[in-house]
Specification:
single chain, 524 residues, mainly alpha, disordered C terminus
Amino acid sequence: MLDPTTQFIVNLFLLLGCAVFAGELATRVGQPALVGQLLAGVALGPTLFGSTSLGSYLGFTSVSPMLSSLQFLATVFILFMAGIEVVPEQLYKMSPLTIAMGLAIFFGPFLLSALVVPLALPGIPARTALYVALTLSITALPVMGIMLSEFGLIGSKMGVLLMNVALINELTAVSVFAILLRLGAGGSGGAIGVAVAALSVGLFIAVMLTIHMVLRLLRAAKLWEPLKAAFSRTWKSKQGNFALLMVMVVGSTLFSQFLGLTYVVGAFYAGILVTRENTGEEAHRAISTIFDAMTWGFFVPLFFAFVGVEMNLQHLLVPISVLAAFGALLAVGAASKVAIGAGFARLQGWRDPDALAIGYMVGSRGAVELAMATILLQTGLIGTTIFTVIATVGLVTTIVAPIGALRTWLSDPKCRAELFARVPSLAGPGRATRLNPPLSWEEMRALYSHQQAPISPQAVLTTASSVPPPAASPPPASPPDESPPAPPLPDSSPPRKTATAPPELPAIERPSLPDRERSPWKRR
């Protein structure tokens, strides 16, 4: 039996290494890296490797206490990074319909799942059913950002809408999660328990909002920049700004934990306070760079690998009722988000294909949902079977979301042309072409050969390597005295002569040299 320290290092090495490489493989097939990272943990956990004698010897039957401490730090960093991506000023610019869409995408699946969970899992406590319904109702903000970047929608009207909707959804989910946890920790039910939970959450949010407003007032009074400059002159410790930021994060998590709201709420709202206006553009860039490197390069792969280790897909098969419950929850959680998202998108005037693609993308899940499920598992509020169901639903919906949106756009000629104009790489012989070939064989042959064949406008839009078509009629040949000046050569260079067609392209009639130099078909 390995000693605890050696086992910890072996587990850390295998989990981190497998998660990093599996995440890279997932991105190469068009999926978020978290899919590969989570599957790496599933393969190393009790589902496969952990059930063998070697896996048991190495301690992959569950997450060890030493790894649990690392998992706590990973959860804090992930929620803090999720909070940094929230821009408070963006909330003031949202339209009422966008806010209503974000709330509906959360509360619609939440209420439907709360009704289905007791039917799918008979005997489950009502409070546990609410926890499960909550985790099935979250739209992942980081995963949404990844999909928008992949589809070339960052900064577009659709991209802004989806990020705002995911922001409202995530803020609502974290607040409702805090209320449910405080309600469970208080031990009292009924109206008194709900009032105490709501007051606790209200107190925490009020403190955070007060800090945010004070900082805004200081900026408006032009006092914040002198204060920061004075701090930089007087504070002599190396990386003192980063150290104080970490103190703020830990203090926020402690405050939320003290109120019974769990530490993830404090980490999330601490990230919201770290804005460009508060820190300055340069400092915000430095903070984002540091936390991006630490979170996405170390904590995120480990976190999803931990989630995979804590899953046991064998529990989905025995008894068969668990598999049926998984199917029911997957159908309700996915279909409700797609239907509500597409319906609200149609109300805002989006075309049917775009509205359906929006519905698919708001159904993605990710780190926040799994962080909440991990806390519920660690506190004993749910068991391994329910945790596996929640994590598997999140995994499947995260895989389906980009594929569903992509197929929807590819099925409509106009949306397909717009997609390929935004992301030309999808028009080549890659994932999009394999899913739904946009070009006929004759068009592909014409585009990727040197023949002067007619090319349709759709073919020009749907490929990154398309060559612009020649002019309708070539310009007349210039007289010798009006020829374009030759490139810098010695004065003794003879006058240039009219070129003939190269031997490898005998079928193409090439114009005279002066005209060819002005032609888009000249060879470089």
